[in-house]
Amino acid sequence: MGRDRGLLFFLVALWLAGFVVLLIGWLAGGKAPSGGQQWRSLACLVLCVAVGAGLAVFWIGQQPAVLRFDGQTWFVRPAGVEPGHALEATLLDVGVVLDWQIYALLQVRLALGKRGVATSGGGRWLWVSAQKNSGASWHALRCALYSRPRTGEPV
Question: Which of 23, 104, 107, 113 is most buried, with most CB under 10 Å away?
Answer without folding.
Answer: 104
